[in-house]
Description:
single chain, two-stranded antiparallel sheet, mainly beta, 8% helix, 2 helices, 5-stranded antiparallel sheet
Amino acid sequence: MKFGAAKFAIGQVVRHRVYPFRGVIFDVDPEFNNTEEWWQSIPEEVRPRKDQPFYHLLAENAETQYVAYVSEQNLLPDTTGNPVRHPRIDEMFERDNDGSYRARSNHAH
């Protein structure tokens, strides 16, 4: 994969390929930028490569909302069109008429 060629964009709604959660992307790292302990805590059979974009999501599952850090290989576009329930969405994004999210101009990434 070409360094820095992120497949997904800030404001895009995505879902995890394996686990049942989805979210809105609010930041992108061109490659892994978290702690070694965090990376090692992922079960080896699903542990992602470090040399790919990683995305910061305002995420939700059936029970709760939280911030997630997910590798590109584990994300898929979310095509449900359903709004994301995360409490920080309105602070960071505006929702367009077509249901997409656009970063608020007053929010610095």
